[in-house]
Amino acid sequence: MHNNENWQNYVDRMGEEYGSLFYHCYQDICHLRLKWRYYVSLFGTNKERFDLLYSVSEVFAYSLDRIFYDATLLGIRRLTDPAKSGKHQNRNISIRGFKPIFDGTPHAIEFDNILNTALSSAVIAQNLANKKIAHSDMDVKEGKTKIQSISRLETAKAIDDIAHVIKWVARKQMNTSVSTIPNTNPEDEIWFLQHLFEGKKAIAQKEVDYMDLMKSGNYNARESLYKYPEWLTENSIRLSDVLD
Fold it and tell me: Can you tell me the distance from the alpha carbon of 201 to that of 194, in angstroms, rounded to the nearest whole number?
């Protein structure tokens, strides 16, 4: 089913049902943390980064802002979904699915406490995701029903509390510690912003050079300032290529 050593390791130690659940929950929390890190790095660290992104393209920056934030709220919602749902009670990748492991054991109360903490932290994110992202509630859309917003601190806490459940299960069931911090270069988004910053300065200089060349009558050199490779122009965008 899975050609993955980590998946096999969890299954060997927890059984297929719960080992597979742990593997997918662990993958999802790491991906969730990465999306949240990108959001915070780009839009939630300081005004200067925010302004840089929006100064280059307000519409694109807003879309990117919403994509990362909505994906974060959806990630919180998914990881705190009921263990099973639907007519056929299909299993979900959710931290609630670990509950049967500990019911009736000495760890039951402790697990219920940390699970309930995570679920409580996730309530606002779940409601927002249900009403505005996964579904589009008409009354909310038209402003007839108010819906509670969530702060960045509350979002971060919800993610941390979910991660705490997953790490706790690893300690109790496999006697091991896992990190839910993505193993990716933390400078990735900084490099992106730095290139954007330098690019904006270069384009501003091009505008100065363009006016100087126009005043001097050097029209050929002026036009060459804005020649880009074909793949970097709007003419290169073909929907068939994207779909293929």
Answer: 11
Binning pLDDT at 50, 70 and 90, where does residue 243 land?
A: low
- Strand runs labelled E in 75-172: 84-85, 90-91
Q: What is the mean pLDDT of residues 148-160?
A: 95
Instruction: Say how many residues make up the chain.
Output: 244
Q: What is the average pLDDT value for the chain, to the nearest integer? A: 90
127: exposed, middle or buried (Cβ count in 10 Å: 0-12, 13-18, 19+): middle
d(CA 35, CA 71): 7
Whether the pLDDT of residue 30 is over 70: the answer is yes
Return the closest-CA partner of residue 94 out of 118, 60, 64. Answer: 118
Q: Is the pLDDT of residue 207 over 80?
A: yes
SS3 percent helix, strand, coil of the chain, rounded to 5, is: 75, 0, 25
Q: What is the pLDDT of residue 192?
A: 93
**CA–CA separation, 68 and 63 (whole Å):** 9
Ramachandran category for residue 72: left, alpha or beta (phi over 0 → left; psi -120 to 50 → alpha): alpha
Report helix, strand or coil for 90. strand
Given a contact cutoff of 8 angstroms between Cβ atoms, the answer to whether 42 and 52 are in contact is no
Distance CA 17, CA 90 (A): 13
